[in-house]
Amino acid sequence: MSSSVDPGGPAVVLRWRRHASCVGLARLELRKTLAGWGLSALEEAALLVLSELFTNAVRHARVSPGREIETRFVPVPGGLRLEVHDAAPERPRQCVPDPDACGGRGLLLVEALAARWGVGDRDGVGKVVWALLAAPDGIGDATGGAVGGAS
Questions:
Q1: What is the pLDDT averaged over residues 61-75?
Q2: Using CA atoms, how far apart are residues 11 and 13, in angstroms rounded to an integer?
Q3: Which residue has the higher pLDDT, 125 or 33?
């Protein structure tokens, strides 16, 4: 894992190997970040959304060795923006899995938990999958206001 601070604001930017063991490590970093920002009320939903987006990148972002997955945690007015960047051009697509299927429900969970989510281009190769999570009423954040963000 490598880290940096976003010069545009208080974002936490971390880079990870494309390995399943990094999902849990990313969750731990998000948990610590949320506590530091006073956004622990978002923890359960945020950890689940991050797990789904990161796991999708690990499973489906077939890229050359050495390419890393990047996570960004950004406090926004009224909540949190989570981003998972990878170098693969393929976009995730939501599907309706067979009721007996063991997988295929990740983006359905993201849609249920996030105020909004989407996919966008990133600087360089690949894509960013992002989700906005709204803080429960009465919970402040580092910037104040309503949830927002561009794709």
A1: 83
A2: 6
A3: 33
